[in-house]
Amino acid sequence: MNILYDERLDGPLPEVNKAELLKTLQHALPDLDLLWREDELKPYECDGLSAYRTTPMLVALPRRLDQVQTLLRLCHQYHVPVVARGAGTGLSGGALPLESGLLLVMARFNNILHIDPAARTARVQPGVRNLAISQAAAPFGLYYAPDPSSQIACSIGGNVAENAGGVHCLKYGLTVHNLLKIEVLTIEGERLTLGSEALDAPGFDLLALFTGSEGLLGIITEVTVKLLPRPQVAKVLLGSFDSVEKAGRAVADIIAAGIIPGGLEMMDNLAIRAAEDFIHAGYPVAAEAILLCELDGVEADVHDDCLRVREVMLQAGASEVRQARDEAERVRFWAGRKNAFPAIGRLSPDYYCMDGTIPRRELPGVLQGIARLGAEYGLRVANVFHAGDGNMHPLILFDANQPGELQRAEALGGKILELCVHVGGSITGEHGVGREKINQMCAQFNSAELTLFHAVKTAFDPQGLLNPGKNIPTLHRCAEFGAMHIHAGQLPFPELERF
């Protein structure tokens, strides 16, 4: 069973005549690849969050910048909503199309334009795969640090739109920390250059504003990223624990000791068993939790840090701490973690992936809370996450063929995100808000803050044509969700009916 996105939830969208729009676009862009038949449109009805599906009115697959400019100008002229899509790997419904809109697929913008080993930069088009950047930079001893689990497939444009992270973001930062410059087009087709190849650019930091904006402000057409030299050495420790609480305490203790690992990941027993059956990484399947801690840098420092991390894990209650014997075992350890999401498919026909972020000190309590909520809703939850920066990825297992299970999974996911906010965290760390978490935005932000978000959106897109109904909820929606914040004893918008 799939949930169809109801566009009316966030206000009416303009009526668009499909035949007239198709004729207009074909006349203006005779060499543009346009899809409009039902069987052609179906592959684009969802992104990586396949529970939500909508068939787009039209799909455009441009190859050139001038085609994108013309498309945007015509959509602006005729008030046609536009949703941008990269590789379609997003997990929050951010690229969910609209029945009355154009889906702008940027996947054919997939060229690496220039690698500058001296400046340690790469200039690429938005459809280039994340991993392809590191592969192109490898002959120069360089790589691109952010490494989401989907890096073999996800596009750099999508990474910028979602501010993606990855296993190594604890030490090397999110996408925003590894960007120098982007080229974008506004809904009017105007070209903007945000950032520079210098250390800093004057004026407001619009580069940071666009990073994570989920396609609401403009269309990314080019990206310049920083490249880093490959570490001299990298070693991985695997710590086994008989409880997730002990593993959570070990995470906080490692950071408190002043150690910043290249990566610090945690998996619970459900995820361990699934990954081991799938990848045969050498995980201890009897453990209730494992920590993967990678330390990189120069040989002497890494050796000392390995000894310190081993001691911290043992003091926190680890039953065993193993160091990867060689590079092949190190790669297997990480392969198990990076394939944990697909491995869960061996345990359940469907799963729903959450993306909350919490302070590290709250890890033990939040993990206990997730277990309680899972029992309350009668659904299993596997925990696989970036423990070092508190970025949780609870995987809620369900069967969409069982009536009501998808709705229970959604409700449980919402409660987990609200728990993250309650302990001082956020509803998302790297997957974005999209459609999936739009209700929980009402729980995290008050009406004044949401109004500012809408003001920023309006400054770039006055008609609200770029990816409408995503990321920023209307205040009416928050009222319906029951999460309007009361300020000074006054309920905002008292004239709105509460449901």
Automatic annotation (TrEMBL):
Pfam families: FAD-oxidase_C, FAD_binding_4. One of its GO terms (molecular function) is FAD binding. Residues 52-230 form the FAD-binding PCMH-type domain. Its cofactor is FAD. InterPro entries: FAD-bd_oxidored_4_C, FAD-bd_PCMH, FAD-bd_PCMH-like_sf, FAD-bd_PCMH_sub2, FAD-linked_Oxase-like_C, FAD-linked_OxidoTrans_Type4, GlcD, Oxid_FAD_bind_N. Gene3D superfamilies: 3.30.465.10, 3.30.70.2740, Vanillyl-alcohol Oxidase, Chain A, domain 4. One of its GO terms (cellular component) is glycolate oxidase complex. Keywords: FAD, Flavoprotein, Oxidoreductase. Signal peptide: none annotated. NCBIfam families: glcD, PRK11230.1. This is Glycolate oxidase subunit GlcD.
